[in-house]
From TrEMBL, chain B:
InterPro entries: Cyt_c3_hydrogenase_gsu, Dihydroorotate_DH_Fe-S-bd, FAD-bd_FR_type, PyrK_electron_transfer. Residues 1-95 form the FAD-binding FR-type domain. The lineage of its organism: Bacteria, Pseudomonadati, Thermodesulfobacteriota, Desulfuromonadia, Geobacterales. It holds the Pfam family DHODB_Fe-S_bind. PANTHER family: DIHYDROOROTATE DEHYDROGENASE B (NAD(+)), ELECTRON TRANSFER SUBUNIT (PTHR43513), DIHYDROOROTATE DEHYDROGENASE B (NAD(+)), ELECTRON TRANSFER SUBUNIT-RELATED (PTHR43513:SF3). This is Sulfide/dihydroorotate dehydrogenase-like FAD/NAD-binding protein.
Length: 469, 282
């Protein structure tokens, strides 16, 4: 099949809609919400791409996926070739096709978006990656890279670490990933819920890396079990991508009441430990009728939609700015609303109210109004005097963010940190220790999966250069 | 996978388990713990590292089998495997030569105390160890701790061994006697015991350290579940602790948070019981 439609014919095709589980059905289970495109839908969407010479979309992708090229192969119905192109640029395409904010990256720069709808690049990426997982026998065999004899230790099995490991392995380096938790994936597994990213997808992406010869050792906490200095002695280079750390506390009264969770605890119980999700999970999770989630990012959306699925009758987002200022993906906000989540905007928590026996009973809030723009360009919320009111809640979840994890850095005195405790690294990930690179949330503070992956990819290229010296 | 080298019963529901974990054995210091997960689907449980043999590559855990998960862990036979053991976590105990030190252990806390007593003895402290238990059969590690201590005192609530009463009895006598009053106290055990010890030493201003065991999920400084109020600050036991200045710890808050899942655990307990009953019936 060829991809030789005229621009006019391409322009005449409407953007595909992602098939979804109905909201009333999905809000009671953990099944994946987005069902994926059919072959016909994918083909038709691929034909919408104008194959323009400017390739703006590629510039918008933190890992630089050859987007027009893989879409062209898809439009020619050559899925093995599309896979080869996609996997050549992106170690985790099935993950990115699901959780990347394409609307602010590749798709935001798509020329078709100037007049109408951008090509659904994310949906197509997912389609190709999912097809590849189901058709291992039809994939083009990549030539095994010549082993370089160099070894690299990767700290953390999250998006940055997995990406770097995949890149380095394809360059012929022997990579070992050290993971602190008992399973792979980092935030992909403990943070992102099953209904957005099924754990099976992570397992399959990890399997691709294992096939490339990447070694993974779980239950090894760098900074505790082994130190960075030990890794430096045992490996030719080190990439630190151990992710985010302790939750940022709200510093309001009542934060230690029973029923108050930090987002990471709530999500880890349900996602990693399968509490409330699998009948035989030994890890408990509280379930209440009224759940208030504080924050406006993707983590807040993941918490509130999870709470809804655990049976909350009122699952609420409490956010101090307006909906337009929310950092969460538009799709997450839309899905949450469809699932019956309430959005309480321009509202900030001032205290958590408890019962006599120490359980949360309400979240005391005050109304906010938007003032002039702050440093981040968003309008600064200001409290409205005398506007305090109580929202009844049996669970309060703090999803405002995280601080840097101190475990690794506490035992690496030569590693320069900024004032927040994040590792200082240059554009290519080089830290203050020669041969030691870093990327992802330990450098950036809280950011996205794809930015972490971009760091992993850039650091892998820099590590390759370093090892060739 | 971590192989079980030995598994002995020290007292009712209390096991001493030795595991092959060479990296942890090498890195571990007194006061630190590991996160243990027996198998897929099981909980992550924080357990203090009781002892370690870096040459043999083994660590020793003292495990009180009181919950469903700990009961399953202690039922692992010699030669069997524990799927996940991660550590050593938490800060090491600050060890110095204070002079006279009293170490107080209650229940399974006595086992947590063991590595501290060992390290304090090695630093040249003159140690009095007070072990408390409900009755004689709950008093553990008396010989081992006795060998490291100048004095060993035992208290039981029913008087079946040693002093009748609580650990605070002999401790307050020592504090009142200028010739025996300690320069520092370490206390590990049930929260009410640690609180009582803290109350005794606060007035005379004796430095007192307690080791806390709050609810924990990852143990690596990510989830924040183990937070505890220490003075005016919220601390995280897994990275800031598990040992804290006893005079600053909000024991009532800690106690209360420990009951967060009582109902859920009772339900699971009942369900496990049902399953077992069905299996027995078969």
């Amino acid at each position: 099949m060829s991809n030789d439609l005229s621009p006019k014919e391409r322009m005449a095709i409407d953007r595909v809609h992602m098939p979804e589980l109905p909201a009333d059905e999905r809000s009671t289970n953990f099944e994946e919400v987005n069902l994926g495109l059919s072959a016909d839908q994918a083909l038709s969407e691929a034909q919408r791409c104008l194959q323009c010479k400017t390739r703006n979309c590629v510039a918008g992708c933190p890992v630089g996926v050859s987007i027009p090229e893989f879409i062209d192969a898809l439009a020619c119905d050559d899925l093995p070739k599309a896979t080869q192109i996609l996997r050549g640029d992106n170690a985790l395409p099935a993950v990115c096709g699901r959780v990347c904010p394409q609307e602010t990256q590749c798709e935001a720069l798509c020329v078709r978006g100037k007049k109408g709808d951008a090509v659904a690049i994310g949906y197509l990426e997912r389609y190709v990656a999912d097809w590849a997982m189901l058709h291992p026998d039809r994939l083009l065999k990549a030539a095994k890279p010549e082993p370089t004899g160099k070894t690299v230790a990767v700290v953390g099995c999250g998006p940055a670490g997995l990406t770097a490991a995949g890149e380095l392995a394809r360059m012929g380096h022997q990579v070992t990933i050290f993971e602190a938790l008992h399973d792979t994936g980092g935030v992909l597994r403990y943070g992102i819920p099953e209904f957005r990213l099924p754990k099976e997808i992570i397992d399959r992406e990890v399997a691709v890396l294992l096939e490339l010869g990447v070694g993974i050792e779980c239950n090894v906490i760098i900074g505790k079990t082994l130190t960075v200095a030990e890794l430096r002695d045992d490996f030719d280079a080190v990439f630190i991508a151990n992710g985010a750390g302790l939750p940022t506390m709200l510093n309001i009264p009542g934060e230690n009441l029973k029923g108050v969770y930090a987002a990471n605890e709530f999500l880890t119980r349900v996602n990693l430990m399968e509490a409330g999700r699998k009948e035989d999970s030994a890890t408990p999770i509280l379930q209440r009728d009224e759940v208030a989630v504080i924050g406006g990012g993707n983590t807040a959306m993941d918490c509130v939609r999870t709470a809804r699925r655990l049976g909350a009758k009122r699952a609420m987002i409490i956010y101090r700015r307006g909906e337009a200022e929310m950092p969460a993906r538009i799709e997450e906000i839309k899905h949450a609303k469809e699932e019956g989540v309430e959005f309480v905007m321009l509202t900030a928590p001032v205290a958590i109210i408890g019962t006599e026996d120490g359980w949360v009973s309400a979240l005391r809030c005050q109304k906010m109004e938007l003032g002039p723009a702050d440093d981040s360009g968003r309008r600064r919320p200001q409290p409205v005097d005398g506007s305090e009111f109580d929202i009844p809640a049996g669970i309060v979840i703090n999803a405002v963010g995280t601080n840097a994890n101190p475990l690794l850095t506490a035992t690496a005195p030569d590693l320069n940190l900024n004032k927040w405790g994040n590792v200082v690294a240059d554009e290519e990930g080089q830290t203050s220790i020669p041969g030691v690179f870093a990327g992802g949330d330990i450098v950036r503070g809280g950011a996205t999966v794809i930015l972490a992956m971009g760091d992993g990819k850039r650091a892998a290229a820099a590590i390759d250069q370093y090892l060739k010296r | 996978m971590f192989q079980v080298v030995s598994n002995e019963i020290l007292a009712e529901n209390l096991h001493k388990m030795v595991l092959v974990a060479p990296r942890i054995a090498r890195a571990r210091k007194a006061g630190q713990f590991v996160m243990v997960r027996l198998a897929q689907g099981e909980e992550r449980i924080p357990l203090t590292i009781g002892d370690a043999d870096p040459a043999a590559g083994t660590i020793t855990l003292f495990i009180q089998a009181i919950g469903a998960s700990t009961r399953k862990i202690v039922s692992t036979p010699v030669g069997g495997f524990i799927r996940d053991v991660a550590g050593p976590l938490g800060k090491e105990t600050h060890i110095t030569n204070w002079g006279r030190v009293v170490c107080v252990g209650g229940g399974v806390g006595t086992a947590v105390l063991f590595p501290l007593v060992k390290a304090l003895a090695e630093a040249g402290n003159e140690i009095t160890t007070i072990i408390g238990g409900r009755s004689e059969r709950y008093v553990i590690l008396a010989d081992e701790l006795g060998a490291l201590s100048k004095n060993l005192l035992i208290t039981t609530e029913d008087g079946s061994l040693g002093y009748k009463g609580f650990v605070t009895g002999p401790l307050s006598e020592m504090i009142a006697d200028p010739a025996r009053a300690p320069q520092a106290v370490f206390a590990v055990g049930p929260v009410p015991m640690m609180k009582a010890v803290a109350n005794l030493t606060r007035e005379p201003g004796i430095e007192t350290i307690v080791s806390l065991n709050p609810i924990m999920i990852d143990g690596t400084g990510m989830c924040g579940g183990c937070r505890v109020q220490v003075g005016t600050e919220t601390k995280f036991a897994c990275v800031d602790g598990p040992e804290f200045d006893a005079h600053l710890v909000d024991f009532d808050g800690l106690s209360d948070r420990l009951t967060s899942y009582r109902k859920e655990e009772a339900t699971r307990h009942a369900a496990e019981g049902c399953k077992l009953a069905k299996e027995v019936a078969k």
